[in-house]
Every structure is written in C-alpha cells, then in structure tokens.
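User: I'll paste a sequence; please echo it back and then give the predicted structure.

Assistant: Echoing your sequence first, then the prediction.
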Amino acid sequence: MQALYDSAARAIAIHLADDARQDRTDEVAPGAIAGLRDDRVVEVELLAVGSDDDHDRIALIADRYGLDGQAITAALRAAVAAPDREITVAVADRR
C-alpha cells in the first residue's frame, strides 16, 4: 500500500490498490473517506490528521469494509513520520 501525507493540508491518502481510480466515495465519519471502485475500497483518505480520533476513524472504515485497520494505521504512521513524500508499506497476512 502507498501513502502520502500532505503536512500543509494535514491530509493523507492511502492507496490500497495499484490503480486508485474511484467511481464513488463514502464519508464514513467526518473527514474519514473511503474511495471505492466497483464497491471495493481502493483508497482511504483522512482529513485533519493528527486529531485524537485518527485511529477511531480508521477503525470505522476498516469495520465497515472488512479492511485490516492495523495495516492502514501502520501506513498512516509511516507517512506522518516521512511527510510530503510517498511511502510504500508492505503488509503480510497474519500467520
């Protein structure tokens, strides 16, 4: 998965698919947006990153769409640690 944290906008885009083109979005909670194509999440967007509820908003998206919230949180943390550049996170299946 790839993530880009825009520090000026305090927004992050986490691509869950190589092709993150979307045909619709679902704002699961304020500032927590799932980008969908063919009813599959291809991107997770968070606005106002750095809020106390970042983890909760990711959990809401993960729960609604059956995603790995821990992996998405790992991508968020990595991108925030290296702002304003695209990072890639490889997450293996649980054993």
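The helical segments are 54-65, 69-81. The chain has a mean pLDDT of 95.
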